[in-house]
Design goal:
about 525 residues; mainly alpha; MetI-like fold; 2 domains; two-stranded antiparallel sheet; 24 helices; 2 strands
């Protein structure tokens, strides 16, 4: 029989809305708006609610993780203190390629150091350059004191023209960048005057009522050596620049310290004159920039960071291996025992978490020292002689023992949670099919526990590679990690740039290992539970 064709009105759809054929227009929601737009609004509201729910967590991650890492990466390449403190010197050095520059560079250095000393930043500059050239810190500290007392030109100019000590006269001569005075077109003195005026105003004093600093007058004296523009000569008249007794600035610096005549300090300023530098990363890899701009190895006595990176990797792997060997049997026992007994033993596993890390590490110092408990027991048992006690502290052995004990729970807990999810019937089935205990364990049980080993190994290794308290207390000189060096540069040497570079390299190193593990094993195979 042929199919019957339905005719008549279309019955109403559930909810009161009449079903419409396609040619009748878009499908409408109950409120009369197109259904597609209504669904889009609903999805947007759901996404907004979800975003508001995770906003506190997102803000917490940004403040405590993303921003600190960004600041660390910025510090590892930041070198703005050199060009910002020595702008005139850097510019003059670019035009003077000689190993020890000439008079114009020393004149620029005098003004830069005078301003830096006024702003109290010359010591920070010396500290930064001291990382690249030993002796720069003391050199800049002493030079800052000397330029503060350099008044050769200032005294002469005040004696030749009383207006040189009048703040109002200087304001009229210089004007402002928007309304320039007759001396605004000179090379050095306008910028020096602006620096002094800004510092004076920042201190709450009026530049019009204050005599300019000696270095402002020195800058003008240096500008007066050559021909002056007509408007400048007219404004300064009747002052006669030819009456000034000239003083070679270069000789003054060399008399203050002969190191200013060595190429090393000038090479350091040239190489690190940009706002960003690879110097910290090169130092973290035991390299440095050569005077020609190439990359060379540091002297043998300064190569330590690559060695510490390798030691940190090897010892972290050893600690992870010991945690697997000691933690696997314990987790297997906990998973096999009745719940009451397993819970009691689990308390013993969790007990170290209830004790301060510093207390646990200090306890190992007592146990491991040559006159400690372990050596006393070995001597009492006749295993070692009293004059041949084991050295287990302030070396790699002490670090491995203490950190294995501290990190062992982080291996046991993932293993235990995975093993609890392995049905015992699998091993019984293997035995019923003829497998002995070892074969049933190795072929059936162990492969199912591998995800727990992977999770525990990642936890232990990443925690171990960043530890610094325990190696610092029990490791001595041969058992410290790269993290101890980072802590040293942050708290003692205050070389935050190198500390940031070391931390960034350590972060990249861990991410590479994580990526390698994911490629070889697969992070999806890592489980914290059954």
């Amino acid at each position: 029989m042929a199919d019957a064709t339905l005719t008549g009105p279309i019955p109403p759809a559930p909810g009161g809305a009449a079903a419409r054929p396609p040619e009748a227009g878009p499908m409408l929601a109950a409120d009369g708006t197109p259904l597609r737009l209504s669904l889009q609004r609903s999805l947007r509201r759901q996404k907004l609610r979800a975003l508001l729910l995770i906003a506190p967590l997102l803000l917490f991650v940004l403040v405590t993780f993303v921003f600190p890492i960004g600041d660390m990466l910025m510090r590892s390449v930041d070198n703005r203190i050199v060009p910002e403190t020595l702008p005139r010197t850097v510019e003059a050095l670019a035009a003077d390629p000689s190993p020890v520059p000439g008079e114009p560079v020393f004149e620029a250095l005098l003004l830069d150091l005078a301003i830096a000393e006024e702003r109290k930043v010359h010591t920070r500059l010396g500290t930064r350059l001291n990382y690249e050239w030993a002796g720069a810190s003391s050199l800049f500290r002493a030079a800052g004191r000397e330029v503060g007392r350099f008044d050769h030109y200032a005294d002469q100019m005040r004696a030749l023209d009383p207006r040189m000590g009048d703040g109002a006269a200087w304001a009229a001569w210089m004007g402002t960048p928007d309304a320039p005075g007759p001396l605004r077109g000179l090379a050095r003195s306008p910028a020096a005057y602006d620096e002094w005026a800004a510092l004076t105003a920042a201190a709450g004093r009026d530049p019009l009522d204050r005599a300019p600093a000696d270095w402002v007058l020195t800058a003008l004296a240096l500008d007066l050596r050559g021909p002056l523009p007509p408007e400048a000569a007219s404004a300064l008249a009747p002052f006669d620049p030819a009456a000034l007794e000239r003083a070679p600035i270069r000789d003054i610096f060399l008399e203050q310290d002969r190191k200013w005549g060595e190429p090393g300090i000038w090479n350091a300023i040239r190489l690190y004159s940009g706002p960003f530098t690879p110097g910290y990363y090169l130092a973290a890899l035991d390299r440095q920039l050569s005077p020609e701009g190439g990359i060379v190895l540091r002297p043998a006595t300064e190569r330590i960071h690559v060695f510490l990176f390798v030691r940190t990797l090897v010892m972290s792997l050893v600690i992870t291996g010991f945690c697997i060997l000691l933690g696997y049997p314990v987790a297997y026992l906990l998973a096999s025992l009745p719940a009451r007994t397993a819970n009691l033993l689990m308390i013993l596993v969790l007990l170290p978490f209830w004790t301060s890390l510093l207390v646990r590490t200090s306890a190992w110092k007592v146990l491991l020292q040559q006159q400690g408990v372990i050596n006393d027991i070995l001597v009492w048992a006749g295993i070692v002689a009293d004059n041949a006690r084991l050295v287990m502290i302030n070396n790699q052995a002490g670090t491995i023992i203490a950190m294995t004990h501290i990190l062992l729970p982080f291996m046991i807990l993932p293993l235990y949670s995975v093993m609890k999810g392995i049905p015992p019937s699998y091993v019984r089935a293997a035995r019923s099919l003829g497998a002995n205990d070892w074969t049933a364990f190795w072929r059936v049980y162990f492969p199912q526990s591998v995800p727990g080993i992977g999770a525990g190994s990642i936890l232990v290794f990443i925690l171990a590679i960043g530890y610094y308290i325990t190696p610092e207390l029990v490791g001595g000189t041969s058992g410290v990690f790269i993290s101890n060096r980072i802590a040293y540069h942050i708290s003692t040497s205050l070389n935050w740039g190198l500390a940031a570079a070391l931390g960034a390299l350590l972060l990249v190193f861990v991410l590479i290992l994580y990526w390698t593990y994911d490629r070889l094993v697969g992070i999806d195979n890592v489980k914290l539970g059954g």
